[in-house]
Request: fold
Amino acid sequence: MDFNKGLKDGIPVALGYFSVSIAFGLMAIENECSALEAVLISVTNLTSAGQFAGLDIMVAGGAYMEMALTQFIINLRYALMSLSLSQKLDSSMTLPHRFATSFGITDEIFGVASSRSGEVSKYYLYGLISIPFIGWQAGTLFGALLGGVLPAMVSDALGIAIYGMFLAIIIPQARADSACLKVILAAVAMSCCFRWIPFLKHISSGFVIIICAVAASAMGAWLYPVDE
Reply:
């Protein structure tokens, strides 16, 4: 059954989310949020970068407009991912289900779903989203309850887990498809330019993600078109 397959495929993502969200829970408690407030943030926002940035703005007493623009920039990439993933959805994914599942489209869930051969059903996507969502909330609660118990070195190390998840998603695809590898390398090269070239490194990280994703994807679509 597609739902069970989605649950199984979501377990590695959930384990990574659990580790990363522990760091968020710890950070929330350090900034005088309660455990309930930390979990509510994670329940209503399934975005690691957005949550960390949003917490910084709240602590600094930023304006609502600043919060809105920051979240828009950081999370705009999810719109691109959803547009891409919509091309793989089968006929069971009606408009209400598209709205329901759009909340759970993250970098890792998009990577797993888009790499699945054939079409993606609503049952598979619900299963794929369910376990990572639970892992994200459980990790946030665990980190919030731990409070200041864990040393800073340990809590900082937990944030590295998300990069391991990214590598686990892209490496198999890059090994199987040379075109995919070239697109990944192009995105990496552009990202390095924004990191190291003086007049580019001042561009915000949200815009950098958008520019690199769009440019690398456009290059891939132009040089390596997919046959109908």
